[in-house]
Amino acid sequence: MNRSRVLQRFDRWGVHLPTRYGQVVGKHLKLHEARVLLGDRRMSDLWSFTFVRNTWDWLVSIYHYILKDRYHPDHAYVSSLGSFEKFIEWYITEGKYEFQSDFILNEDGAVGVDYVARFDNLAEECLFIGERLGLPLSTLPHHNVSSRLRDYRSYYSDALVARVEGVFKADIDRFAFRFDS
After folding, report:
1. The pTM is what?
2. Distance in angstroms (rounded) separating the CA atoms of residues 59 and 57
3. Span 120-132, pLDDT tens digits
4. Per the domain annotation, does 1 fall within a domain?
5. Residues 88, 90, 94, CA angle at the centre, nearest 5°?
């Protein structure tokens, strides 16, 4: 299903997703926000899924996303920091972060989606999700490619690994992430 058909479907449901140049813009929705937009009945009728990403890899991705997007509100400041380590300290100290689990937990604190896919298995997960939804997904286009080094582990010292692990322990434990996986 192409992007315009997806947007048309949301419009039929009475849900407006803001777009710019055919791309949905705005922040990622949390589960409770999707529930408000779609309603409890529609949400219960849908098969829901999400992707989670290894915390250490996710933080490198966020860093490079901010550096790449000159319109990001933190772009200038993050660019001025000059290093990933300084970014992490700022990100944690200023409370800029959210936990991935914040996006998928229901009011009882339990995972509220039907399936949690892992970004590190993106191709296989998308094939499974495509089959489940009846969508033929043989290959995935690669959008929003960053200029970062290939391996997220190269960004971390032992001390920085431990710092991230201490702050993001809830997600790391919930999703069984490991630094070296």
Report:
1. 0.78
2. 5
3. 888 899 889 989 9
4. no
5. 125
